[in-house]
Amino acid sequence: MGHFVTSADIPENGEKLTHPLAKTIQFFAGIIAAAGIVISVGIWFFGSDKVSGSFSYSYLFAFTFFLTLALGGCFWTLLHNVTNSAWGTSVRRIFENLGFVFPFMFLLMIPFFFPAVQGHLWEWHTHFDNVTANEGVSRFAGALFGYWSNDGMKTALTDNHEAILATKSWYMNPVAWYIRSVFYFASLGFVIWLARKLSIQQDTDENPGVKNLFRARAYASWGLPIFGVAMTFWAIDFVKALDYKWFSTMWGVYFFAGCAMASMAFIILTTILLKKLGHFKKVVTGEHFHLMGKLNFAFVVFWAYVTFSQFFLYWYANITEETTYYLLRNTEGWNIVSMILVGGHFGVPLLALIRQDVKKNPKIMMIITLYLLTIHALDVFHMIIPERAPSLSLILGMKDIHLWFSGMWGLDLFAFITVGAFFIFIFIRNLRSAALYPHRDPRILESANVHN
Amino acid sequence: MSTSVKKVYGYLAEFESASHLWKACENCRDAGFKKWDAFSSFPVHGLDKAMGLKKSILPYLVFFGGLTGFMTGTLLAYITQVEIYPTVVQAKPANIFTIAAFFPIMFELTILLSGFTTLFGLLGLMGLPRLNHPLFASRQFKRVTDDAFFIAIEARDPKFSPEGTKSFLEEIGGKSIELVEDDEK
């Protein structure tokens, strides 16, 4: 036990991220993101059907990866507030800043609203388009501008041999899809904005009491259900719907496990880097790294648990609609990726994170968290990219159904860098716009002296 | 029976509060005592460091316990389901690639044996179960489960001396210092 941190150690006006390096990184990330977005639009407009179609998948992969980090930030903020926790007060602002990237991600989601992009990703959108164009059925007929679809649409879809889609059309129809997409960002965006605002208000409060803290706790109690709904249904509407015939009751949990694990890795990495820049000297100790490492470890195991449950039940039950997801991913090259995920997403981090001294060692944790983020990217890749070649082969009317388009990984990398640069730009903007930790929070001293 | 010679267990000293106990523990640790222990009715955070206790070897026992369970589960499933009596379900292969179906067994046995090792290893390392403890002979020691804090330095300790240890305990703030004798011989 070193010396106890007292209020004399906490700067009166908070610690700001003023290091010039942060500003430089933000500047370059902004430039890369802007250039990347311009080039992306160029690819969509001028690329051949195969290239622009492939790029839609690349972009969805990159977008989903960085969205999971932001969603995880929302989750950790709300969880910390609702459980009345004290241990993480000194790192809570990082959770909030990471979560507050989420509403900004809406800007990058706009391309998905264009039919040219949708058509390559989600075949069911195309089916609806065909029905509207060929049979003259209006999308907007029925209750609430066709939110629940309508009988004419169902009949037309059934006539087009899309009976499954007709049955699902009360949920899966373009009108409802657009409304829901906006709802996710508006609702959860509001929740995380409010949580961060309450926290920052405390920084300039003349009489810092417990008022903001208790309000944040009360808001988080209804914010968490909103998080659950927005996260789960976003994952269903954008990723699971890549194959509209497939269904899985584990999908939301599986997606969530990835969110929580990867974002905690990102939070640990950020804390280490900020500590390297000379921040958090008094308030973040090895104990915090130990606690966060434990959460990371827990979600490595949780991810394996739900992923395996989903695989095990669907693979051995062998029902056509259910097993199709794994059939595609256990064929040829994709089977290698699946196998790597078993060992790389579970075995290696399980053994690496099991020891206490490893979790307390920033140098080793930096390598482990970078590794975890990489393997999580592979997990998201494995969710989305296997759908690319088979779907596009059908849509573009190719003779053979391909499993893999060679040479398209360059587009994946490009989309990853574009969305990543935007993400880093917003994240550093959030970090710089407020104090790095809530220095007037009543629990900051308890958190700085935490011992477990 | 007052004439028979009794075995001396050691000195027992009471301390006023948890923080006095903590400071006394640091003094005992720095004085180089090895066979001694601190007693409190509730857990005191960081007392292990103040006492200079080493990390327990229990995690290593649990690791090997879990490993044994893992190997048992793997072999049990593999030998029965692949070697001796292959069960073909839904046309899935019956070879090493069936391993996904074995995971529940591997997992359960890993958990079971590491759980057992944790419980029994812990009891073994603590020396439990035992029928009696020499300190129960002391009347004042009964308060340890209520409101008192104690340190006991055993006579087995190489640094123990009848006069020196008593004055040392007085020096570090011990009250009602008592020489505890073992009831048994």
Structural overview:
The complex is a heterodimer of chains A (452) and B (185). With 452 residues, chain A is mainly α. Chain A has one domain (16-122, 173-448). Chain A has helices at 20-46, 49-82, 92-99, 101-109, 115-121, 123-135, 143-146, 151-159, 163-168, 174-203, 211-238, 251-276, 286-317, 320-329, 333-353, 356-359, 362-384, 388-395, 409-432, 444-448. The longest helix of chain A has 34 residues, at 49-82. Chain A starts with 19 loop residues before the first helix and ends with a helix. Chain B is α+β, with helices and mostly antiparallel strands and 185 residues long. Chain B folds into 2 domains: 8-55 and 133-181, no CATH class; 58-126, no CATH class. Chain B has 5 helices and 4 strands; from the N terminus they run βαβαααβαβ. Chain B has helices spanning 18-31, 47-51, 58-84, 99-126, 164-171; strands at residues 8-15, 36-39, 149-154, 175-181. Chain B has a 4-stranded antiparallel sheet. In chain B, α3 packs antiparallel against α4. The radius of gyration of chain B is 26 Å and the shape is elongated. The model of chain B has no long low-confidence stretch (mean pLDDT 86). The A-B interface holds A 1, 308, 311-312, 315-318, 451 and B 45-46, 49, 89-90, 92, 100-101, 103-104.
